[in-house]
Amino acid sequence: MAKKVLIVDTSILCVWLKIPGREVIKKKDKPAIKARIKEEVANNTHIVLPFASIIECGNHITQIKRKDSQKYVNQFAEFIEKAIDGKEPWDIFTNQSVLFTKERLKEMVCDWKQLSVTGLSMGDVSIKQVASHYDSMGYTAEIFTSDEGLKAYQPSPKPNLLTRNHNRR
Fold it and tell me: What is the pTM of this model?
């Protein structure tokens, strides 16, 4: 069976980090998100934070109009630093640097030009590109998002191939 990657979208990351005003998922779904992430960690799923999710989440935190916004800035910075240092199960940038070559960036812009009419943002197109990249490396890639439009661009799951017993007749 192919190794699995769970690619975390901004909508899920904001719920996970409890970003005020950005927890756009129904309250009943919030515990399910936490349980799902814990389950995937227990199953040794590779959990990926795309660069777009990090940037978008950081932007949302910066826009908090509360006196305690610095608390969220510090928490998010610590979260990212722990992930970079391997102290959290989240994976940042691993295997994603190849997506930032001139050729791949041109592909992303071309995809975005075509997909923008469907409402897919540049960040979403880059997440789609991350999923496609992991899929091409043989992983089962799932985009973990509350956005059904983005979810539709998730690569198809890999079938479990069984070897055929040629001696049997």
Answer: 0.82
Q: Kindly state the tokens that stand for 100.
A: 């930032």
The angle at the Cα of 1, spanning 167 to 104, to the nearest 5 degrees, equals 125
Alpha helices in 23-85 (DSSP H): 30-42, 51-62, 69-84
Residue type, 34: K
To the nearest 10°, report the CA torsion of 28, 34, 38, 44. Answer: 100
Cα separation, 68 vs 152, in Å, equals 37
pLDDT digits (tens, 9 = 90+) for 33-66: 888 988 998 998 988 999 899 999 999 998 887 7
- Residues in CB range of 164: below 8 A, 6 or more apart: none
**Residue 147 main-chain phi, psi, to 5 deg:** -95, 105
What tokens appear for 92 in the block? 């940042």
Instruction: Express each pLDDT in 66-93 by its tens digit.
Output: 777 888 999 999 988 888 887 777 877 6
